[in-house]
Amino acid sequence: MRRRLHSTLPITDCKKKLEKVSREHKVESAFMTQRLTHFEVKFNSIETYNIAWDILKLLDDAYCEIGGEYDEFPQERFTVIIYAGREFDEALMMPDWIAGLYDDKIRIRLGDLKAGLKNCFIMNILMPCFTTWQAVTFLCG
């Protein structure tokens, strides 16, 4: 019994991953992409372009600030996905109190970013990118 259960776990994990990727693709397939040196940002419409650009500028400032603190600057480009309202829920199935997350991509729920909190939020969501990058760099050489 134990062995049989163990052998089905990877299939369950693969099925969950496939469902997640499928949901994300359904929501993100029509998104536009803007690239900067350190970031690739995806967003849903021209209406969010200016907001996406503002977030990119904040991310770039945070990249410089955090990189300066660590004295290291990752060379790879980070992916940032900006969701408008319900898109975040549809793609990620997260509770509505989550404003963003990092799962190898920076994912931001647009409606929750109040002007005064943007910079603090961006710093907090970008920090895991750097720590993950540092860990991988340290472990893999």
Fold and architecture overview:
- The protein has 141 residues and is α/β, with parallel strands linked by helices.
- The chain has one domain.
- Helices cover 56% and strands 16% of the residues.
- The protein has a 5-stranded mixed beta sheet with strand order 1-2-3-5-4.
- A hairpin with a 3-residue loop joins β4 and β5.
- The longest helix has 27 residues.
- The radius of gyration is 17 Å and the shape is globular.
- The termini are far apart.
- The model has no long low-confidence stretch (mean pLDDT 77).
Helix content: 55-70%
Distance between the termini: 41 Å
What percentage of amino acids are in beta strands?
A: 15-25%
| Total helical elements | 4
Unreliable spans are none
Kindly state the number of beta strands.
5
- Please list the strands of the largest sheet in the order they lie side by side: 1-2-3-5-4
Mean pLDDT: 77
So what's the overall shape?
A: globular
Instruction: Provide the number of structural domains.
Output: 1
In terms of structural class, how would the helical and strand content be classed? alpha/beta
Biggest sheet record: 5 strands, mixed
Rg is 17 Å
- Give the SSE string: HEEHEHEEH
